[in-house]
């Protein structure tokens, strides 16, 4: 009997669609699910007549695979992955490959790579983005881990991945141990930011401009033909146009309590650990947390008066300003995400190719947009680019967006409308372009109460001083260190 090219464990939505994608590209796939009835249902259902081998145990799955065996797991992140690895290791032989295609936290992938390779096996942690449709038609894939595994999985991964216009697959090797899952985590953080700024723009259209849902839909569809051309702008236009069985806009009947699975929070925590100001994504995570406190917000709305929304400006001009605010904020979100990737790459000794990462996100994934092509160009032009906002193209776009962006944030504040992501992005922009910040006062305060020392503008960097501010303190200074 013909053996399978790859095996997959976990026939939930993503797993089922991913194996259908693999089979459609000419691969024979062995499938297994802990609830084995799902295997039979799939093989007799969507998989009927296709090149699938249904298996009812891990032993049977492993025995059905060509060497080196490639076993991909698409199961819930966390303990389930560790348990499955421990079950697989005794069944596999040196050189076989375990692949985790779930949303695992990258420190877990670093740990698992070391653990699995200590048993003579190879380990890959791969980000998979694109949702149900992407899994079936072509996702963005971000593999990292044991580089020796890449030649054995490259053809499968690149054949099933989404392709950009010139046919380049949205998949390439990212880096060692947890690099693939780290890049996917940053992707998800940027996704949080994109979704939040779009939601804030929708809120301003509705509450300030009182646009109809059709008008809002048409606006987003128009924006999708320019610099904001992206999957999330496209689906927002479709969501606003969608009507329920009563011909009412369905979006207005959805409870305003957002869920989250943790990847945005992981991104924000990683940024705090690395000392990188990931302000927009952080605010996007907190906005979801506040949205989940629905009952508390309803109670607060009954005891606090809000400003009466009063807009007397030009509606079309404000729509244009909203477009500028979205573009400016989107640039900030990506720039902050890339800043985090650069810092984490240093800490983990990853050799990340930032242009190629942008290319991997160009198709298949949730944050896919034409915008990413400009990031690829920026890093192709200058592979050592220190920060995306120092690139000429993005500098020009930010400067052009600033006036309208400021008007949107000012209008929101004046009318009591929360725009945490749009406003924090603007604040970061203003802080980033400021040569002299008020942190000199902050350092003076730290030295005053805690003898934490300070550097002087007229001195050398790395030379620290302490002042006896009150005359009652001594000359002893605290140890200088940064978290």
Give the helix/strand layout.
Elements: E1 6-9, H1 13-24, E2 29-32, H2 36-44, E3 52-54, H3 58-63, E4 70-73, H4 79-88, E5 97-100, H5 106-117, E6 122-129, H6 131-137, E7 140-145, H7 150-160, E8 175-176, H8 179-207, H9 213-223, H10 231-241, H11 263-274, H12 279-292, H13 294-301, H14 315-348, H15 354-360, H16 371-381, H17 392-414, H18 420-432, H19 439-450, E9 454-455, E10 464-465
The major β-sheet equals: 8 strands, mixed
Helix content: 40-55%
Percentage beta strand = 5-15%
Secondary structure class reads: alpha/beta
Question: Could you walk me through the main structural features you see in this protein, from its secondary elements to its overall organization?
Answer:
This protein is an alpha/beta fold and 483 residues long. It contains 19 helices and ten strands. The chain has helices spanning 13-24, 36-44, 58-63, 79-88, 106-117, 131-137, 150-160, 179-207, 213-223, 231-241, 263-274, 279-292, 294-301, 315-348, 354-360, 371-381, 392-414, 420-432, 439-450; strands at residues 6-9, 29-32, 52-54, 70-73, 97-100, 122-129, 140-145, 175-176, 454-455, 464-465. The strands form two sheets. Strands 3-2-1-4-5-6-7-8 form an eight-stranded mixed sheet, sandwiched between helices. Strands 9-10 form a two-stranded antiparallel ribbon. The radius of gyration is 25 Å and the shape is globular. It starts with 5 loop residues before the first strand and ends in an 18-residue tail after the last strand. The model has no long low-confidence stretch (mean pLDDT 93).
């Amino acid at each position: 009997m013909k053996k399978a090219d790859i095996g997959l464990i976990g026939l939930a939505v993503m797993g089922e669609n991913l194996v259908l994608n693999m089979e459609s590209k000419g691969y024979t796939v062995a499938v297994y699910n802990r609830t084995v009835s799902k295997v039979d249902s799939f093989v007799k259902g969507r998989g009927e007549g296709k090149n699938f081998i249904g298996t009812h145990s891990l032993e049977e799955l492993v025995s059905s695979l060509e060497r080196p065996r490639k076993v991909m797991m698409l199961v819930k992140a966390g303990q389930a992955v560790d348990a499955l690895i421990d079950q697989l290791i005794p069944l596999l032989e040196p050189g076989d490959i375990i692949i985790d295609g779930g949303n695992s936290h990258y420190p877990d992938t670093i740990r698992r790579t070391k653990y699995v390779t200590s048993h003579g096996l190879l380990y890959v942690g791969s980000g998979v983005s694109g949702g149900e449709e992407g899994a079936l038609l072509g996702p963005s894939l971000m593999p990292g881990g044991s580089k020796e595994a890449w030649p054995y999985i490259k053809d499968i991964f690149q054949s099933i991945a989404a392709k950009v216009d010139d046919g380049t697959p949205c998949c390439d090797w990212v880096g060692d141990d947890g690099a693939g899952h780290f890049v996917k985590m940053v992707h998800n953080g940027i996704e949080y930011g994109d979704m939040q700024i779009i939601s804030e723009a929708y809120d301003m259209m509705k509450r300030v401009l009182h646009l109809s849902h059709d008008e809002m839909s048409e606006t987003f569809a128009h924006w999708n033909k320019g610099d904001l051309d992206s999957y999330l702008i496209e689906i927002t236009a479709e969501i606003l146009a969608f009507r329920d069985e009563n011909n009412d806009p369905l979006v207005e009947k959805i409870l305003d309590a957002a869920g989250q699975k943790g990847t945005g929070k992981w991104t924000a925590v990683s940024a705090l650990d690395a000392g990188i100001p990931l302000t927009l994504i952080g605010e996007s995570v907190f906005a979801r947390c506040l949205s989940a406190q629905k009952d508390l917000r309803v109670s607060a709305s009954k005891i606090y008066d809000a400003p009466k929304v009063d807009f007397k400006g030009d509606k079309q001009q404000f729509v244009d300003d909203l477009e500028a605010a979205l573009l400016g904020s989107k640039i900030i979100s990506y720039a902050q995400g890339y800043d985090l990737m650069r810092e984490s790459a240093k800490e983990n000794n990853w050799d990340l190719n930032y242009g190629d990462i942008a290319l991997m996100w160009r198709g298949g994934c949730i944050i896919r947009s034409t915008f990413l092509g400009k990031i690829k160009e920026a890093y192709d032009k200058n592979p050592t680019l220190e920060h995306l906002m120092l690139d000429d193209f993005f500098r020009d776009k930010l400067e052009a967006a600033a006036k309208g962006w400021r008007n949107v944030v000012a209008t929101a504040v004046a009318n009591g409308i929360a725009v945490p992501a749009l406003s924090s992005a603007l604040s970061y922009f203003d802080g980033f372009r400021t040569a002299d910040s008020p942190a000199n006062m902050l350092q003076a305060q730290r030295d005053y109460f805690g003898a934490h020392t300070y550097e002087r503008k007229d001195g050398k960097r790395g030379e620290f001083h302490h002042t006896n501010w009150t005359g009652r303190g001594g000359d002893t200074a605290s140890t200088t260190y940064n978290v």
